Amino acid sequence: MTSKIKPAQGAPYARIMGVGGYRPTRVVPNEEILKHIDSSDEWIRSRSGIATRHWAGPDETVAMMSVEAAGKAIADAGLTPEQIGAVIVSTVSHFKQTPAIATEIAHRIGAGKPAAFDISAGCAGFGYGLTLARGMVTDGSAEYVLVIGVERLSDLTDLEDRATAFLFGDGAGAVIVGPAKEPAIGPTVWGSEGDKSETIKQTLAWDVYRTTPVPGGDGPEERTAPEAVRYPAITQEGQAVFRWAVFEMAKVAQQALDAAGVSPDDLDVFIPHQANMRIIDSMVKTLKLPESVTVARDVETTGNTSAASIPLAMERLLATGQAKSGDTALVIGFGAGLVYAATVVTLP
Amino acid sequence: MAATQEEIVKGLAEIVNEIAGIPVEDVKLDKSFTDDLDVDSLSMVEVVVAAEERFDVKIPDEDVKNLKTVGDASDYILKHQG
What we know:
Chain A is an alpha/beta fold. Chain A is built from nine helices and 14 strands.
């Protein structure tokens, strides 16, 4: 017989309750990047707006940076680690396929036995995680969800590629999503364009290095990496990415504003994924945002930290007083996949 | 009605002026966007998108790299405009 099943029930709405970030201690100026490429500080700044970035040291692992950022976010939300019911980690630079790094992070922060898993949504990962967290809070799967964006992209950077060597940085950003009485996270406008999956990608799959027997193969030599194989790194088609990011993502950002019922004049803060200052500037122009809107420009001193960039930029805007709790912010992430996610939030 | 080459060059000059701040009179058929007009690869994308809207033409990413000079761009638009 079909039994009557109690439905899951959660809070009426969800909100971001706290934010925290971790930036590796080592600051890397453009001069250091120039050791391996034929370029100039002026060229790098004019094409990307990046002056410095943080690169993680051996002890600043994906887990360590996440734990640091998570601790700050939990404290900022006024919670204790045991109250966290779920941990979502978005990353592309945790180098073990299994287990998910989220479980180790959950354990190390002292969260008990929360649901914990990783997601892979590139530079849109924060928006994807935030959207999952909102759903989990409002359907009752968890009262408080920890969402972490973390990357060690220096590990996936080709230092000899003059188009990307200067672009990427390392760090972790975290937020706590919890129950709210009023709507504080708008509808998410998100999606994917798999026909453009080659536009931003890791150059080679890890199995190019396989030296043990392949299932169904005759021996170990079949898939052994030739000596000339270059270590995998992230590459992109710069012009195609720029066009998509500026012009297509401006439309998505506008849709997110419309979906939330917020006009540009009501917006306080714009936090786009910190990919490149030129993309940010052109998006602001294309969106025709009023000058009263504070725009996150954290990329200048942080580089592109993929899934970590939005929470890191959010944390810095709040810490420096450029934005304040209760402000209305438009966030949009976009990147490899290609994938994107945009929504309007009330800042914690 | 389709634009003439003269109208296209005039339009491109206005676009390049708007995006890169180059005087309109400097934008001539034989000028290279990158070498003569200080339009870098990212600004070139903005020029292309503005030209697409103005002249009702599609310029795919793979064709952008072939548009070295103002003449290349105006020829392309002349041939492909809607």
